Amino acid sequence: MNDLRFALRQLIKNPAFSAVAVITLALGIGANTAIFSIVNAVLLRPLPYPDADRIMVLNESANGQEFSVSLPNYQDWKRDNNVFKYLAITRRESRNLSGIPGREAERIPCASVSEEFFKVIGLSPKLGRTFNEEEEKPGGPPAVVISDRLWQHAFARDASVLGQTIKLHNQAFTVVGVMPAEMNSPQDTDVWFPFARRIVPFWQDRTIHPMLFVWGRLKPGVTIDQARTEMKAIAARLESEYPATNARASISITPLLESLIGKFRTNLTLLLCAVGLVLLIACANVANLFAARGAARAREFAIRAAVGATRRQIIRQLLVESFLIALLGGVLGLFIATWVRDALVGLAPQGVSRFQDVSFDLSVLSFTCAIALVTTLLFGLWPAWQTSHGDVQVALQSGSHSSGISLAAKRTRDWLVISEIALTLTLLVAAALVLKSFSRMQSLQLGYEPHGLITARMELPFRVYSTRERMGTFTNLLLEKIRALPGVQSVGIGSNSPLMGGWQTGFYREGIPIPTPSQMPDANLEAIGGDYFATFKLPVLRGRTFNVGDTANSPRVIVIDQALAEQYFPGEDPLGKRLSVDVGNDNEGYAFAEIIGVVARMRFHAFDETAPMPVIYCSTAQAYRTGLGLFVRAGSGAKALDKPIRDIVSSIDPNQPVFDVRLMQDRVEDTWGTQRLLTFLFSVFAGLALVLAMIGLYGLLAYTTLKRFREIGVRMALGARPAQIRALVLSHGMRLLVVGSGIGLLAAFALSRVLQSVLFEVKGIDLRIYLGVGLILFGATLLASWLPARRASRVDPMVSLRTE
Predict the structure, then answer these.
(1) Average pLDDT value for the chain
(2) pTM of the model
């Protein structure tokens, strides 16, 4: 307790030293705590399901790509496997919820799940039950289980919800159960249906992959590797039995948590490593501060040793002071982390619920405490050991500005600054590479103009809009009314438009042998209406677009993009040629359609789409779709159209909700979410590291200049010019820069290889980046060295010689 009181008095007695040390550590600890809180929420926090590590997600895979499962394949997997205790199939979709008194119609996420899905998850209903045997049969009683979230906001947690009827896509369903708050699979679902009610006959075709995904719970004692081995054997058998549809098809098995957050693991791990380097730089800074302060207090400790204090007591005293600094830095760092948390969540990728659940729970607080204790040892132990081993006789005889410090101590302080420079160069190179990668993403040619374009989505009830004629009536009236809004330049609709979903189809040219399903080329398929191409500002290169003459009863016509034209019609004019395409109409299958136009390329998916697929466009008059995207170009006034669009849809169909109303530019920027967070934080960490390293260099040179005060006076008395004194100090700083840069370059080369997996169109070894970083570091070092050098060159030799 005496040591603690004495340490507190020492820190109060030296407020400047205490403030610099606490703030330096607070920045390092705060940054680490903030990043760890995200890592904890996204990567480390387990899923709220019993034995969640036993839950697997299964997909079909081929050529390194994963895709949804065909229903017959799932049925074979379920029948033949011996590694899963339960195996279930799911299909996500959304429906319009209505029929609740006092509430307008709204769109909610739903899922059709097979009978064992709730057993796979391992949670029981909070109220009621899951589906019984009758409800699981095709044509059985229409029943649903709802989420705790929907129970809260639609029914105010009324326990009498069981047995109530709700309408989903204008069809009545009875609520038979409410799941607990922990249950939100798959992907934030609010309503679960029996899967058997959703099956349509053509799903029994193995070539059809209707967005079905398989979930399984491993049997006790079965490992993931054992499951993968058995399922691959099943896939090989199916390939031999059905070579036309299952050629080269395998089965991928991924733990549920990994399937949710796997793509964020590398980026968050890199951020945690980067912020750890910042903490090391902060610790090196504070260690040098404590070493300098220990040297200044050498006489004090020599006197204490002379009157009987042991080395252990001196080390303990200094470690208590270090602990107090670390404790204060940890508390302030926690406040800093709390303050920046909302900013980090705002920069995080949208639509990932785990990023939104960042909190400072016990594990984060424990991490902060652990960091504070570790930093106590990192920056406190060496200065304490060095001070306790000082020569008592020399310390008692030395003046306050004596240069009588050991060569080992000088070298250690130099190496601390060298390490700061090396770590800073590594972070600066990493930040520059990530920044250049992000710049490349932003300048990526999308093929369309996202600015001034507002988008919205609608899911039309298939029981109400059961024919293409009814769909046409709705969409034509919608387009007509929106065109009449002030400021609207053009309007179009699409079914699977850029960044709003995906629909792939097979196709082949007329006149060639029909390919097998495994050899069939694929293309993105987009059903469009209105002034779609004009709204996206997508140039028509040849031919025409769709017109009122292209109806359900007229010959099938399509428009293709430039990529498909160049790849499948090289050196030919594709106009008038025909492709056999399955546009998704029930009971229609593949049918030949004439190519009437060619448009420019347009990127449909995120920037990291490895191989953009060609695109086939068909008319909504000839392809039945209930899920629609609405696109309205209105320049700077686009954002103000949210309410008018909703009002127009409501005037046509009061039970039809509009959802996901957003500017197209916002959708584009969301695809950068992870990279934006990575770029921002790497830049902040690199800037913080640069500032801390230069403060450390300045402090070292200022301290050594002060210790050489008498030597400098002697040199000047013997005729040394101020320029030579400045060169003496500057050369010390430059030597540290050269050695630190050499080590930092090696570390930067190694880190760039790790970063390569997250860089977009940027090579890890970029000479211009290394040169630019070198110039920045040289300029900062020159500035940090110039101030002590300038002060040294102004020393009055008479004053310095009289000081002792």
Answers:
(1) 83
(2) 0.78
DSSP result, 198-257: T--GGGGSTT---S-EEEEEEPTT--HHHHHHHHHHHHHHHHHH-HHHHTT-EEEEEEHH
Q: Are 207 and 517 in contact (CB under 8 A)?
A: yes
Residue with tokens 């209903």: 125
CA geometry: angle at 232 spanning 229 and 236, to 5°? 135
Pairing of strands 84-98, 106-113: antiparallel
Q: What is the pLDDT of residues 193-229, one digit of tens each?
A: 999 888 777 788 888 888 899 999 999 999 999 999 9
Q: 251 φ, ψ to 5°?
A: -130, 130
Burial class (CB in 10 A: 0-12, 13-18, 19+), 784: buried
Cα 241 to Cα 236: distance, rounded to the nearest angstrom? 9
Task: Return the H-helix or E-strand segment holding 111.
Answer: strand 106-113
CA 266 to chain centre: 9
For the chain, percent of residues with pLDDT exceeding 70: 88
Calpha distance 640→634 (Å, rounded): 9
Tell me if 584 sits within 8 A of 525, measured CB to CB.
yes
Q: Which residue, chain included where needed, has tokens 């570790």?
A: 374
State the angle between helix axes of 256-296 and 673-707 in degrees (0 to 180), rounded to the nearest 10: 10
Place of tokens 């029929």: 99
Tell me: the pLDDT tens digits for 90-134?
Answer: 999 888 888 777 777 888 999 999 989 999 999 999 999 999 888
pLDDT at position 482, please? Answer: 94
Burial tier of 407 (Cβ tally within 10 Å: 0-12, 13-18, 19+): exposed
- Residue 697, helix vs strand vs coil: helix
